[in-house]
Amino acid sequence: MTSPETAHAPAIQLDGCTKEFVTPQGGSYFAVKGIDLTVMPGKFVSIVGPTGCGKSTVLNMAAGLMAPSEGEALSFGAPVVGVNRRASYMFQQDALLPWKTVLDNVSLGLIMRGVGKKEAAAEARRWLAKVGLSNFEDRYPHQLSGGMRKRTSIAQAWIVNPDILLMDEPFSALDVQTRQIMENELLDIWQESGKAVIFITHDLDEAIALSDEVVLLSAGPASQVVARYDITLPRPRNLLEIRDDPQFVELHREIWGRLRDEVAKTYAAKAA
Ligand SMILES: Nc1ncnc2c1ncn2[C@@H]1O[C@H](COP(=O)(O)OP(=O)(O)O)[C@@H](O)[C@H]1O
Ligand SMILES: [Mg+2]
Predict the structure, then answer these.
(1) What gap in Å lies between CA 271 and CA 260, rounded to an integer?
(2) Domain spanning 4-86+164-271 has what CATH number?
(3) What are the residue ranges of helices labelled H in 116-272?
(4) Could you tell me the residue ranges of all domains in the chain?
(5) How far is the CA of 194 from the centre of ligand 1 (A)?
(6) DSSP E strand stretches across the chain
(7) Shortest-distance ligand to the CA of residue 263
(8) What is the per-residue pLDDT across 135-168, written as a single tens digit (0 to 9) for each?
(9) ABC transporter domain: which residues (predicted)?
């Protein structure tokens, strides 16, 4: 899919991206200002920051769901115009269709791309096996646990073989144990896939455990990138044990020291 001239281009590059919203009163609100972000193919980058600081806004600009008011969003060297076709999106709330079975939900993305029903179903079964749902293909979404719904969503996002996965707090509604299992499974699938991931979370533990790089946004309005941290913990990682690793503990201490200030600013602004 990658042409020679864009082989070394970032999967996502935001250059000085600012997003201004018009408020219902006709005023203006700067959600984020001058965001620079580069995500190379095969890299796992997390964005953390306090609630409302503009994490989803940044992801939406990468996804092409929102155009920057200033600056430019590029994907593999080309401006993002309209929905970014190189990317799949995974939200906190899954987007499963309640009237379709697990198999049909997972097949849908391929069918919409013109793949035949039989071929799409075969590929969907391959993905359901990968995420441990082979015995549940005939179930409807309401018959699934939270973890199973997430597995279905992961299969949905990956089956179309995107170059980029954009994940907006995908596991935040899960209980802690299910969440760690899902994080582990995500890394297993991502490992060696060559795909770029931008992962939004407000959970610093999750960001460090998963990522190659953690990008910290300041409290809004006009949120900016305040720090970037390379996470050099060796891979493959076992997320059920990584939180006890001294290197993890040290990184967490360092990044939390900075994030805490931004969280405090957000609370102070709300209390005012
Ligand atoms: N469509 C919109 N119109 C107006 N304001 C918005 C819109 N989307 C987001 N905002 C505001 O921009 C800020 C950043 O929002 P968001 O990116 O959702 O933050 P986060 O994902 O970090 O919680 C918030 O103050 C939010 O209220
Ligand atoms: Mg958000």
Answers:
(1) 16
(2) 3.40.50.300
(3) 117-130, 146-159, 176-190, 204-210, 246-271
(4) 4-86+164-271, 99-161
(5) 31
(6) 12-22, 28-39, 44-48, 70-75, 78-79, 87-90, 164-168, 196-200, 213-217, 225-230
(7) 1
(8) 999 999 999 999 999 999 999 999 999 999 999 9
(9) 12-244
